[in-house]
């Protein structure tokens, strides 16, 4: 079994911990040593393990360790990844046992991704690094997904879609075919994207339109 730690001791981190336990029931693979978190004190217990420290402690860790970043903030994940300088740290993909990849030969998958329960990824898909797919998500054929994106439960990405970096796609959102989502875009829950979006914008509704706060 490989040692692994979860960065983020909140709700998503606890869910990932449960997923590791289920993975181990299928194949003994991960030894969870604890959590890293910059907002909670050392020794804090989240119910599934204790906080070992924050970024400074992780960067001083002196043996090989796999780390999965369970934080539902695209910009926050990107910033954190850039601050982890420890050469001993590696970032595996964590994939729930029931996730379906319909053609792994045509799949290009980076590192540090999380696939929670019930996801389906079809054919000719490219996925970058440090994306979170938080359950019951479908990714259609010929889609291209970049880095540091957060997909909340039951998002549907239709075929030929391009989603670049640091986007947050809310629960139940639908991205219709061949549309492009650029950078740092927020798509509200149950919204439907029917055309290309503008960067640094929030979209809500069906059809989704820009809203300003």
TrEMBL record:
Residues 3-73 form the PglD N-terminal domain. Pfam families: PglD_N. Gene3D superfamilies: 3.40.50.20, Hexapeptide repeat proteins (2.160.10.10). The active site is at residue 141. Transmembrane segments: none annotated. The record marks 142 as: Increases basicity of active site His. Belongs to the transferase hexapeptide repeat family. This is Acetyltransferase.
């Amino acid at each position: 079994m490989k040692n692994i730690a979860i960065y983020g001791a909140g709700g998503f981190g606890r869910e990932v911990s449960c997923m590791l336990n289920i993975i181990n029931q299928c194949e003994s693979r991960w030894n969870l040593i604890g959590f890293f978190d910059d907002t909670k004190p050392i020794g804090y217990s989240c119910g599934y393990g204790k906080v070992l420290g924050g970024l400074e402690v992780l960067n001083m860790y002196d043996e090989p360790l796999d780390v999965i970043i369970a934080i539902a903030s695209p910009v926050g994940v990107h910033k954190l990844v850039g601050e982890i300088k420890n050469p001993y740290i590696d970032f595996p993909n964590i994939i729930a046992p029931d996730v379906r990849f319909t053609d792994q030969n045509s799949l290009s998958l980076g590192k540090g991704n999380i696939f929670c329960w019930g996801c389906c990824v079809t054919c000719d898909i490219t996925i970058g690094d440090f994306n979170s797919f938080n359950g019951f998500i479908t990714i259609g054929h010929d889609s291209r997904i970049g880095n540091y994106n957060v997909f909340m439960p039951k998002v549907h990405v239709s075929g030929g879609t391009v989603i670049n970096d640091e986007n947050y796609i809310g629960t139940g959102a639908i991205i219709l075919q061949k549309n492009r989502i650029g950078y740092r875009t927020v798509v509200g829950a149950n919204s439907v994207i029917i055309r290309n979006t503008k960067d640094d914008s929030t979209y809500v509704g069906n059809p989704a339109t820009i809203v300003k706060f």
